[in-house]
Amino acid sequence: MELEVKIKKLREGARIPAYQTDGAACCDLTAAEAVTVKPGERALIPTGIALDFGSRDWAALLFARSGLASKKGLTLANGVGVVDSDYRGEICAAVVNLGTEPVEIHPGDRIAQMGFFPVARAVFLESDELGETERGEGGFGHTGV
């Protein structure tokens, strides 16, 4: 399945996201400016691009890059970033350094992954009754740790 996405470069040197392999589910986003993230610190890393994927039936989701997370402790501060279909501003990655050393980001460094996913919009129906299931109200840890 393909989705046409318009990209506007907002900064000099901004790069178009790229898939690194034919089987990659997400494309890589790159930094548009240098940022140093100290241990325990959060930062917003600009990519220098804005998107238009034209339909509220899609959303772009940002994920941490596994190599940065496992080797340097740099991950997304919000877990998963959500880019709504009607957002036209610069895509930025909110990161946090969970490691013990500063992480230096340079322009062009791959900082996050972005995938596009279909969105279902819920129609909420207030009800006094919910269907019964085997799980019922079993919450956090109800099947063990």
What this model shows, in words?
- The model has no long low-confidence stretch (mean pLDDT 95).
- A four-stranded antiparallel sheet has the order 2-11-6-8, with no helix packed on it.
- It has one domain (6-118): Deoxyuridine triphosphatase (dUTPase) (Deoxyuridine 5'-Triphosphate Nucleotidohydrolase, Chain A), CATH 2.70.40.
- The termini are far apart.
- It has 145 residues and is mainly beta.
- The chain is globular, with a radius of gyration of 19 Å.
- It has one helix at residues 66-72; strands spanning 6-9, 27-30, 35-37, 42-46, 49-52, 58-63, 74-76, 81-83, 92-97, 103-105, 110-118.
Question: Which architecture name does CATH use?
Answer: Distorted Sandwich
Question: How much is the average pLDDT?
Answer: 95
Sketch the major β-sheet. Answer: 4 strands, antiparallel
Share of helix, binned: under 10%
Order of strands, main sheet, comes to 2-11-6-8
CATH class: Mainly Beta
What oligomeric state is this?
Answer: single chain
**Helical segment tally?**
1
CATH superfamily: Deoxyuridine triphosphatase (dUTPase)
Detail the poorly predicted runs: none
- Proportion in β-strands: 25-35%
Note the main attributes of this structure.
145 residues; Deoxyuridine 5'-Triphosphate Nucleotidohydrolase, Chain A
Write the layout of secondary structure elements.
Elements (H helix, E strand, L loop, with lengths): L5 E4 L17 E4 L4 E3 L4 E5 L2 E4 L5 E6 L2 H7 L1 E3 L4 E3 L8 E6 L5 E3 L4 E9 L27
